[in-house]
Design brief:
alpha+beta, about 15% strand
């Protein structure tokens, strides 16, 4: 269980190294994909799906229409730091709280 926790923390650190470049028409693109590849390997995630989550935002409009819009470089960087890292840490802490292991893991 500690190994799983360390894998998640390592993935977060690798995701912090993912960088973006300006793309065309207010979009962005990934730079240094090897960090994303390593994080995906550690998390057992699909690299294409994770890439899209950094580079695009999908939402449902008022009429039920699904809209996908590209993110600028700045928004992609915010997405990386704020959304994914917080989600992973939340999952990690929730898992350990439910197992009653959080205190033991921190000591």
């Amino acid at each position: 269980e500690q190994f799983d926790m360390l894998k998640i923390l390592a993935a977060i650190l690798h995701l912090g190294n993912v960088s973006f470049q300006e793309g065309r028409d207010d979009s962005s693109r990934l730079d240094h994909k090897e960090f994303l590849d390593t994080a995906c390997s550690l998390l057992g995630s699909n690299m294409a799906e994770l890439s899209r989550s950094f580079l695009e935002r999908t939402f449902t409009a008022g009429g039920g229409e699904v809209v996908t819009t590209p993110l600028t470089k700045a928004k992609a960087e915010n997405s990386r730091v704020n959304i994914l890292s917080c989600s992973i840490m939340n999952a990690l802490l929730t898992s350990y709280l439910f197992k009653g292991l959080l205190f033991d893991a921190l000591i």
